[in-house]
Design goal:
Blueprint lengths: L1 H17 L12 H6 L2 E3 L4 H15 L2 E2 L5 E16 L5 E15 L5 E14 L4 H36 L2
Parallel strand pairs: 1-2, 1-3
Antiparallel strand pairs: 3-4, 4-5
Helix pairs in contact: 3-4
Length: 166
């Protein structure tokens, strides 16, 4: 019994020690969370821009406006592609892709980082035009939500990397 207990104990001790210094990216005192409070997102035009701004504001503590220590500028590009084609050449399934070219600027307007991020979802288009429109809007909202999560994660990674390099 002791022969099996010692390796288990050593493994457990190693795993416990390896977690020392770990800080979740979204903890209250992490560099990313502190920096998020200093980021402001520039206004984005259109319905997609409004929904994206709301998603980002809900997630990261980022505020809306143009006078923060950091400025997040985003350009959204929606795309829709039919890929469920019936015999009569009518698409019944569509893919919605929302692409964001974004950059993070400091207070002097210098670009700190810039990336292109994508959120993709799909929806079925039935014979009812109203249901199809609702499904498309829902798919766009889900793609925007995925995109907001991706950008917040990338910003968090940037701020943690920048904090470690100080």
């Amino acid at each position: 019994m002791k022969r099996f207990l010692l390796p288990f104990f050593l493994f457990f001790l190693f795993m416990l020690v390896s977690c020392i210094g770990f800080t979740p990216i979204y903890s209250e005192k992490s560099a990313a969370r502190i920096a998020f409070s200093e980021v402001q997102i520039s206004p984005i035009s259109g319905r997609e821009g409004f929904v994206f701004t709301q998603e980002v504001l809900e997630r990261g503590g980022i505020t809306s406006g143009e006078s923060g220590k950091y400025q997040l500028q985003v350009k959204l590009t929606p795309a829709r592609r039919g890929f469920g084609i019936q015999v009569d050449n009518v698409a019944t399934r569509f893919q919605v892709q929302m692409t964001a070219n974004w950059s993070l600027l400091d207070e002097n307007g210098k670009t700190l980082t810039q990336k292109t991020s994508t959120g993709t979802t799909s929806f079925d288009s039935g014979s009812n035009p109203y249901a199809s429109q609702v499904a498309e809007t829902d798919a766009e909202n889900r793609a925007i939500s995925i995109l907001a999560d991706t950008i917040i994660d990338q910003l968090g990674h940037y701020f943690l990397s920048a904090d470690k390099n100080k």
